[in-house]
Amino acid sequence: MQVTYRIKRFDPEVDKTPRFQDFTLQVGENDSVLDGMIKIREEQDGSLALRCSCRAAICGSCAMRVNGEPRLMCKTRIRDAAPEGLVKVEPMGNLPVVKDLVVDMGPFWQKVRAVKPWLEPPAAKPEREYLAPNEAMREVVGVVACIMCGACVSDCTVWEVDPNFLGPAALAKAYRFVADPRNTDNDERLKSLTEYTGIWDCTHCFYCVQACPKDVAPMERILALRREAIKHGYTDHNGVRHSDSFAQSVKDSGSLNEGRLAVETQGYLNLPALIGLAPVGLRALKAGKMPSPLHHKRPGASQVKRIFNELEKEEKTT
Amino acid sequence: MRAALEAKRRHADVALISKVHPVRSHSVAAQGGINAPLSAGDSWESHAFDTVKGSDYLGDQDAIEFLSREAAQAVVDLENMGVAFHRGPEGKLAPRNFGGASQARTYFVGAITGHAILHVMFEQLLKAGVKIYEEWFVTHLAIEGGFAAGLVAQEMLTGKFHLIRAKAIILCTGGCGRVYEPSTNALICTGDGMSLAWRAGAPLMDMEMVQYHPTTLANNGALMTEGARGDGAQLRNALGDRFMIKYAPNKIDLASRDVVSRAAQTEIDAGRGVDDGLGGKTCVYLDCTHLDRDFILERLGEIYELALQFANVDITRQPCPVRPGMHYQMGGIKTDLDGATRIPGLYAAGECACVSVHGGNRLGANSLLDTVIFGHRAGAHAAEFARQVDFRPLSEGVVMESERRAQAVLSRPANGESIAKIRLDLGRTMHQHAGVWREVKGLQTALNTLYTLKERYQKAPVQDKGKVFNTNLVFHWELGYMLDSAETILLSAIHRTESRGAHYRTDYPERDDQRWLKHILVGYRPDGAPTIEYLPVTLTRWKPEPRVY
Predict the structure, then answer these.
(1) Angle at B535 between CA B529 and CA B536, to 5 degrees
(2) What CATH number does domain A106-231 carry, 1.10.3120.10, 1.10.3210.10, 1.10.1060.10, 3.30.300.30?
């Protein structure tokens, strides 16, 4: 079938700003978007710069934006990406563009390095392997499956506003070690992940889950890290208070008490932070968005409470 | 990375130079597992014998013994460093079956074993603090006074050429699979290290031994792991027959790869092939449909995805069309057990090297093992060597030489024949004449074609004239390397007038131990035809026998 690729080009030695260029070509029915890109590079324009290697969704080189979504190009079929014969390809987001579709992965790897991405096994080496249940290994392999392609980082909404955020890939990697029964420094890891740039900075927007071509679901791993951090007693954090307040308010009244949430997230005794909230409160008041100080119970709130109680009981027994 | 890690652990000052980020290296694509005689009732002798037999008695038995003796510890070391191997009921490592093996000894992580190991290696490099130069492309290996002295590499980000001095250099550059079209190999497998070493004076050995993997997808050549058959999948022809029963009555679908590939190709050539989805009948079926769906998804999830994507086949419900495809180069830079080449200070390990443990045919799950065992060994030895010698004097002139070569290519008018076209012609020629079946006329035709390709290459331009991330120029360098590998493959294949392992000559269909129980080495000569040399195969305890599976 015939298809047109609309490719974002940028040559730092020539261009001041990026530009789009169209290429039209014939492709096969089961061809991937990458197959077409390679064909363009080989038959039409040898100067087109992109990274790719294995063609089988395992080396992690070819993550790009296809029709605006982060995709592994070799794992995306043209006929799915271009049902109407047009496919748009751009470099990943959140990382500086080097040339055409090649981005600087430096910041990505810097974050991976920051989470101490290696196992700290027990000091006493066994004669053979460390024993570990296969179930635990399966959980770990769910993250080991990460190919470090960067698709999750491309569309991370937190990274976009705060590039200091460790980001979904590095945090998923951190989880891989925390979840590994052979690892020994979980406490230290969880402590440092609780700090600024870590697990509590994620806003659960789900973009990374959607973007990941290997079903690693980074956000789920971040949530799992939060649960582990709380278990380890790392609870002195706005994020923990925020989620506790959120749950407590729903448990008490069947719905979210926004006023209470704002205060409890900072902590009742945290005067400087509470004073800091004042301008926000004033603006909300002006705009008529100030939540009512009288928060009423929803009809059926007692049923909601029962659900909470049941779940809490269950959690205690497991 | 295993070599770098070992050298670093022995307090050498190590730099790792790679044309891609290390986790993009092609070991990442190894699916099925890594062999080790770890389980009760297994022995290194059994593993070694299977490997010797798999090699069709061309493997050097001292090297194979070493491989098998070290295997258990190497796999345990990987586990200890963090590889999340599949476990049995008591939490111990648990293997799967694999081709050519007399018992289950293949340890695995789903169908992503290479990936899992490679990433752990990278983690260990970070932990050890090894300096990594990623996306640096090596254009020249400098030899001074007969010793390895350093290399020249182009930094892709800037296009700048750098001189790196070294007391010892270990080439771990992988195979040359892209010499063939199609191939399961990644686009980066262009035999760079083989060519660099060859031109520097280190001969290449067993290059005619090119493995075709029996089960690759027709559409893009992607690999469907042998682990599928290890876990119970069956091969069938168009009549629905399990044809392997005829060719290998004992091991059936788990005979060694050369045997299964020839059998599948024979069925296809006899008109019993199945639809390849491209308009031909060039495939046979890989049938997993009798296996439990959850079992497939846990252990073979990766190939489930591949088949769904590229062949539009759900392997849990439909048999998948597959065909033999180029997969692995058994030959390579001749090294000794320490990974040392004939050039002092120059080492090689992994697919680019030839120790030789694989001989005429590599067993599945022995390649990852080869990389970690001989990577470790080469790293240790190179570190020791570096401690004993001084840097060789090396002038910046070698950098200028690479710059001059680059400039010459860049200044060619952009409208000539593309390097992609030359590469495609090379790949198709090799597949047609130096694939599963070979005979002298075809091989000679291929060699003549190769020499014209070399001439065409000398005139081929690049379209990208820039400095920053000029992949076009990189492909140009790579094609030059590939042409060297191809030449040595064809010369060796023409030379070996017998059939052994993966090298099957229709004009000499029998193995001939009288004349050919020996290695062929091809040497480079700057001013003439390549040299041919023989080395005897090292036999320790296993005498050559007829090979029946």
Answers:
(1) 155
(2) 1.10.1060.10
Q: What ipTM was reported for this prediction?
A: 0.94
So where are chain A's domains? Answer: 2-103, 106-231, 238-317
Mutate to test the interface with A, among B87, B126, B183, B283 (most CBs of A within 10 A): B87
Q: Which residues of A touch B116 (CB under 8 A)?
A: 141, 144
Tell me if B82 and A53 make a contact (CB, 8 A cut-off): no
Tell me the CATH architecture of domain A2-103.
Roll (3.10)
CA of B461: which chain A residue's CA is closest?
Answer: A46
DSSP letter (8 states) at residue B362: P
Provide DSSP, B58-127.
Answer: -S-HHHHHHHHHHHHHHHHHHHHHT----B-TTSSB--B--TT-SS--EE-STT-HHHHHHHHHHHHHHH
Q: Is B28 an interface residue toward A (CB < 8 Å)?
A: yes
Query: A277 — contact with chain B (CB < 8 Å)?
Result: no
Whole-number Å distance between alpha carbons of B163 and B152: 5
Nearest to B481 by CA among B282, B232, B188: B188
CB atoms A141 and B109 under 8 Å: yes
The tokens describing A31, both together, are 């061809």
Q: What is the 3-state secondary structure (H, E, C) of B404-433?
A: HHHHHHHCCCCCCCCHHHHHHHHHHHHHHH
pLDDT of chain B, 549 residues: tens digit per residue:
999 999 999 999 999 999 999 999 999 999 999 999 999 999 999 999 999 999 999 999 999 999 999 999 999 999 999 999 999 999 999 999 998 999 999 999 999 999 999 999 999 999 999 999 999 999 999 999 999 999 999 999 999 999 999 999 999 999 999 999 999 999 999 999 999 999 999 999 999 999 999 999 998 888 999 999 999 999 999 999 999 999 999 999 999 999 999 999 999 999 999 999 888 999 999 999 999 999 999 889 889 998 998 889 999 999 999 999 999 999 999 999 999 999 999 999 999 999 999 999 999 999 999 999 999 999 999 999 999 999 999 988 999 999 999 999 999 988 889 999 999 999 999 999 999 999 999 999 999 999 999 999 999 999 999 999 999 999 999 999 999 999 999 999 999 999 999 999 999 999 999 999 999 999 999 999 999 999 999 999 999 999 999
Domains of chain B: 1-209+330-549 (3.50.50.60), 213-326 (3.90.700.10)
